[in-house]
Amino acid sequence: MSQSHPQPVDLIIEARWVVPVEPHAVVLEDHAVAVDGDRIVALLPIADARAAYAPRERVELTEHALIPGLVNSHTHNPMTLLRGLADDLPLMVWLQQHIWPAEAKVIGPEFVRDGVELAVAEMLRGGTTCANENYFFPDVIGATYRKLGFRAVVGLPVIEFPTAWAKTQDEYFERAGEVHDSFLGDSLLTTAFVPHAPYTVSDESFERIRVLADQLDIPIHLHTHETAQEVEDERAKSGLRPFQRLQKLGLVNDRLVAVHMTQLTEGEIAACAAAGVSVVHCPESNLKLASGFCPAEKLRAAGVNVAIGTDGCASNNDLDMFGEMRTAALLAKAVAGDAAAFDAAFALRAATLNGARATGLEAKIGSIEVGKQADFAAVRLSDLETQPMFHVISQLVYATGRHQVSDVWIAGVRKLAGRELVGMDTGAILARTRAWRERIASA
Ligand SMILES: [Zn+2]
């Protein structure tokens, strides 16, 4: 192209800094991203972009870092409506005596829809553009994400007891197939199997999941090795550690997205690396439930794909991926006894590109690269809390609060503009959330 005939594109975002994540640990100063439709078509210095492109819209972010939208690699977003319902309790007491009974009283399509909507509003205001979802009523979950234009991996649940979603194992599998088919070809939605955990899913169901996940070419996303007790209970029952049982069932491969993993032997870490397993580290949920410490640095050093998730709001209690990145980096250093462990650039990668890889979306999202989807978060770094500026990536991980996220795009569409949600009615979301508070508290 010549300077006299600049190429028309939909959008140019000019930023003081662009952190593309790939190549690793790079910060580009005074760069612009050109977007056409839902895709990134160029990443180049601002002066060059002005000569080469005629954008329909130009956004100037003179005090901001533009980063890939954050990927929350493990969450239960309908549970955002249970935020703060039961705190300061051990995992099994929390789950069996508080969360499951409360859920049983309110769970249904409306609860799921309103919980996801509240979560999407919170995620967008925190720079998150993709959620790896794990909850019942995936049909409603997917429809809600689709309506709101939010990217998600919709989990297809399997658990060995009847729930409001399905009564029998056959019904879980039938409904999983229906939901998967209904979202085929959707530009923002994909699916994964989400068997709850080894202690709630039978060998027979795991075998069906393995075969179907291969046929559908989708990930298998499950909680495992969350606590030492879980590992002990499985050993007492089957004589195997949960991970060994998954190995025996043929599930330890590059489809496996293993969440928590606080109890791991050196052999299991090596097996994860060799098999291409992704591990989702949920440090704040693990800390709050005193579940144990994921050896995140050992996993990273072994070459395991480590991603980051918040877990649900009932055990975190927020969907703040900036907070989670910071906690992940700090906790990994303490657990490893090494201040150089899990550095800031790796934490940002874990919260973006590694999440994309875990969810099978590595070719589409997770970094600012030509050809990828235009999913971005702009972070205003001129606030006194993030000054002076020596190192952008360090500042993003160790000093930035999610309130500094100013603008967000998903597939080239602006979802947050100057911290205002675009196309979402904040007042209506709050009113519905307060109504759920009354129903849940009086249940
Ligand atoms: Zn979870």
TrEMBL record:
Amidohydrolase-related domain ranges (all copies): 66-413
Pfam families for the chain: Amidohydro_1 (PF01979)
GO molecular function: deaminase activity; hydrolase activity, acting on carbon-nitrogen (but not peptide) bonds, in cyclic amidines; metal ion binding
Gene3D superfamilies in UniProt: Metal-dependent hydrolases, Urease, subunit C, domain 1
Domain of life: Bacteria
Keywords: Hydrolase, Metal-binding, Zinc
Similarity comment: Belongs to the metallo-dependent hydrolases superfamily. ATZ/TRZ family.
Stated name of the protein: N-ethylammeline chlorohydrolase
